[in-house]
């Protein structure tokens, strides 16, 4: 069965992004083009929290 997707647009074209994802077409392209470690960032929840704190501090 296919997972639900949404269509995102960027300057290169359209991409089908998983509907539940918080990211868009740019991030999807980066994930496909730059598989550096193969380990998802979710494996490091403290890093994700730290990045969110930095982002929040910039606002």
Task: Give an account of the 3D structure.
By secondary structure, the chain is of the alpha+beta class. The protein has one domain (5-58). Helices cover 39% and strands 17% of the residues. The protein is built from two helices and two strands; from the N terminus they run E-E-H-H. It has helices at 25-33, 45-58, and strands at residues 5-9, 14-18. The protein has a two-stranded antiparallel ribbon. A hairpin with a 4-residue loop joins strand 1 (5-9) and strand 2.
Give descriptors for this structure.
2 helices, alpha+beta, 59 residues, two-stranded antiparallel ribbon
Gyration radius (Cα, Å) is: 14 Å
Runs in which pLDDT lies below 50 for 5 or more consecutive residues are none
Strand order of the largest sheet: 1-2
- Sketch the topology as an H/E string, one letter per element: EEHH
Mean pLDDT: 89
């Amino acid at each position: 069965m296919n997972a639900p997707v949404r269509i995102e647009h960027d300057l290169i074209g359209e991409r089908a992004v998983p509907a539940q994802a918080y990211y868009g077409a740019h991030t999807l392209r980066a994930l496909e083009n730059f598989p550096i470690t193969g380990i998802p960032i979710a494996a490091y929840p403290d890093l994700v929290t730290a990045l969110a704190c930095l982002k929040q501090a910039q606002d």
